[in-house]
Specification:
By secondary structure, this protein is of the alpha/beta class. It contains 9 helices and 11 strands. The protein has one domain (about 1-254). The protein is globular.
Length: about 250
């Protein structure tokens, strides 16, 4: 069983977490090309492209300019991100054995690096799949990745047991030919709802929290049977059989 989790915009500053043997990303050269393209933009152009403040734009321009030039700045992907999902994945609390297991079962999707294993060392960055860059061959970054990542994902899942637990976000589906993925492997996509009276809502913060927490749950318990994720019960989210389907388990916080 393989797991797919999204990367995050927020990245840790100066994290040197250990317990994992560092490896190089499969598409390190592609990421370097993207960073070089972005480093030639102005602060104003970056702020406009990312719809962010000048302060954040300046920080990211600085990242692009030193991208790949300092080995000391590289961090294993599982430690590098610090968005909501990763705060609840709590990678720095995983054992060395947990981390080793995760490297064989967890993929992290990234618009900059394509697909990452937890041990792949990366630079700090910000990237958007809608960008068209010289290094993306004149197409959107997300379209550039489709032909490169679809087969990789399918082949890695088939080399395991043919099952993918999709804990990624909707936007990262664009990195793959999703129809081909669905026709080639079994994809199980957990859904997380919060009950408010008679209504079920899906607050983004809780969805991200649960994706990270479920990733940790699978890693710590070495889950390889997808039915076993139904015992996930964190932050009062519990499996609801009445709302669930075989490939769409639903967890509700009441």
């Amino acid at each position: 069983m393989q797991i797919l989790l999204a990367s995050a915009k927020i990245m840790r500053e100066g994290c040197r977490c250990g317990g994992i043997a560092a490896k190089r990303p499969l598409f390190e050269d592609v990421a370097a090309g993207f960073a070089a393209d972005l480093s030639r933009m102005t602060v104003e152009e970056i702020a406009d492209a990312f719809s962010c403040s000048m302060k954040i734009a300046q920080m990211n321009l600085g990242r692009y300019k030193i991208f790949g030039t300092d080995e000391a700045e590289l961090t294993p992907a599982i430690f590098a991100y610090f968005g909501q999902a990763y705060k609840h994945l709590k990678a720095d609390e995983l054992s060395a054995e947990d981390l080793e297991w995760s490297c064989a079962h967890l993929w992290i999707s990234s618009c900059m690096y394509g697909l990452l294993r937890p041990s792949d060392v990366i630079n700090q960055y910000r990237m958007d799949g809608s960008f068209i860059l010289p290094s993306s061959s004149g197409v959107k970054v997300s379209d550039f990745w489709k032909s490169r990542l679809t087969d990789l994902l399918i082949e890695s899942v088939l080399a395991d047991d043919g099952i993918l637990i999709y804990l990624d976000t909707d936007e990262y589906r664009a990195l793959f030919d999703w129809k081909r993925v669905l026709s080639s492997i079994r994809v199980i996509e957990p859904v997380f709802h919060v009950a408010k009276g008679d209504r079920l809502t899906t607050p983004a913060v809780w969805a991200k929290t649960c994706r990270g927490a479920m990733t940790r749950y699978i890693i710590e318990n070495r889950i390889t049977n997808p039915d076993d994720i139904n015992s996930f019960n964190i932050n009062r989210f519990q499996y609801d059989s009445s709302l669930s389907a075989p490939d769409r388990p639903v967890f509700v916080k009441r």
